[in-house]
């Protein structure tokens, strides 16, 4: 059958890509079973018992739409960050928010600056709205703020994206440098500062919540998917000047949030003791991943996130063989997509049993690869 | 502070509207408390016990992203409808799917045909992508298929929308007429046939699942929000030719679904006995709403949905006074937005206690109004 012939000129040309292949698809396609799910930067320590209690309490109310204003969650986040409610808006994870941001700013052909090998889902949205990706290389496995700024100016780009701490490398820029970068931007360039891994960053990496709240051209994105252990709940939020946060209300799916997820996020935010426990576990698991890497002759990169990039010392084909080989052993990990980052594999933290499986499987795989 | 100056030409002009004000916002803004939530066409009979069990079981796994391919749910829906998996795609409720559909087809200025007073959320998306709404009036409180087809032809419209059964009137067109309408459309016009209320419709209203599967220009939308009692889970799906269903993969947020919600939808679909029970309760509640209307001198319209439109016999101002007055009594209902539909109020079904509150409050309100 032929396709509907009257798609927009943009959508007609788009491929049916998915930014990441899920572990479930890999299981189906390769007939394998994931035993250690440590590839998607999820958080296998899971949500707090208080969160599970809140979800159970909310479940019978799931016949009701969630509050389209997300009033209570915005209020709680504002209080948590010392901001006002109108400086927060909510979306279906940072992934959903990124789509909305791109839609706000990008008309076909406009340039969008990002780093080569940075977040594929952001790129997916840029291409989806007809934007033109302009990439700058990482410098020493870090996002290169100077090069990003140069590219913005050269291209007169309306949109620039980077993550701090960074995915997929786990590296970071100092918070002061991030603020300087934002303040140096032309007022006609919107910065998406993706702080998905903000909770696990060392002191000084995440600028104070109000550090850039005076800039209408800065949107900071945060999530409950990582340190809070709620990737499957799909709750992200933005911190922005009130005028900027309000733009989301022009385009978002107002009745788009899961009611149980919102309850989960509220409970997770309220349980900062649990978050502290998990952060300690994440730090310990990062150490463990590092030790396993070293024991196998590899170099773990310093990480401010819930994952560790491991330099395997050779090329992308070698790293890919390791990723594929580990999957044969039931260990699901991922790797950066482009050179020279793709000399690395990327391993997410997980409970002890997952780390043990990795420790057991990696030497086996390397032995096979020779 | 000034707004970011470089929004797209469309987004710059958009108002920050919400298609519907939620009952929570009404409570906050008016300092009232909803006792009977029978305004948003939710289903107060709630989800099945088997669904709550599935949600509880899935909750601890909410640290994992949902499968971006929604394989299992698409497989289950395909089996349920006697279709193949590639003829189904999934989204965050019909609301989310409508946004994706509009995005596929609408470039600024293109005409979109719908009925005057039909679904505001569809209109929200059309305006959001720069489309131009072309509306035709209802005929005898039903969507007028002949007039819709005329408008499509006159405007050479790439997109036409209607709901069957209809919201906000609860009326319906015969399934055979719907199929004839779809087959008479130009191949360059995409039909969104919104069947959100499909489960509560009488026999003959919903065409067989495969009735239009040979048409690349037809997308049927279904949901777990209504009869299945899962509005807060945000799970909708489309039935379409495989080539058409696949277009969603070019634009959707692949990692956008809540994991617990997907588990809820799977369990709801599996529990058709519970659905049958709820359908009987919905039918009884419709009868009860009708009796309450008649007892107060009003005329209930026949309904194929989980709500009843009640003709109050006067104008929109009068109907609005009833809606506002009922809210003072803690009874949340809504009403159609434009004349002549807005001579009606719209009451959603709910459990006995909600119906009792309505029966008690309505005469009080009418007495006050005189």
TrEMBL record, chains A, B:
<keyword id="KW-0032">Aminotransferase</keyword>
<dbReference type="GO" id="GO:0008483">
    <property type="term" value="F:transaminase activity"/>
</dbReference>
<dbReference type="InterPro" id="IPR015424">
    <property type="entry name" value="PyrdxlP-dep_Trfase"/>
</dbReference>
<dbReference type="InterPro" id="IPR015421">
    <property type="entry name" value="PyrdxlP-dep_Trfase_major"/>
</dbReference>
<protein>
    <recommendedName>
        <fullName>peptidylprolyl isomerase</fullName>
        <ecNumber>5.2.1.8</ecNumber>
    </recommendedName>
</protein>
<dbReference type="InterPro" id="IPR001917">
    <property type="entry name" value="Aminotrans_II_pyridoxalP_BS"/>
</dbReference>
<dbReference type="InterPro" id="IPR050106">
    <property type="entry name" value="HistidinolP_aminotransfase"/>
</dbReference>
<keyword id="KW-0663">Pyridoxal phosphate</keyword>
<comment type="similarity">
    <text>Belongs to the class-II pyridoxal-phosphate-dependent aminotransferase family. Histidinol-phosphate aminotransferase subfamily.</text>
</comment>
<keyword id="KW-0697">Rotamase</keyword>
<dbReference type="InterPro" id="IPR001179">
    <property type="entry name" value="PPIase_FKBP_dom"/>
</dbReference>
<dbReference type="Pfam" id="PF00155">
    <property type="entry name" value="Aminotran_1_2"/>
</dbReference>
<dbReference type="InterPro" id="IPR015422">
    <property type="entry name" value="PyrdxlP-dep_Trfase_small"/>
</dbReference>
<keyword id="KW-0808">Transferase</keyword>
<dbReference type="InterPro" id="IPR004839">
    <property type="entry name" value="Aminotransferase_I/II_large"/>
</dbReference>
<comment type="pathway">
    <text>Amino-acid biosynthesis.</text>
</comment>
<feature type="domain" description="PPIase FKBP-type">
    <location>
        <begin position="131"/>
        <end position="222"/>
    </location>
</feature>
<keyword id="KW-0413">Isomerase</keyword>
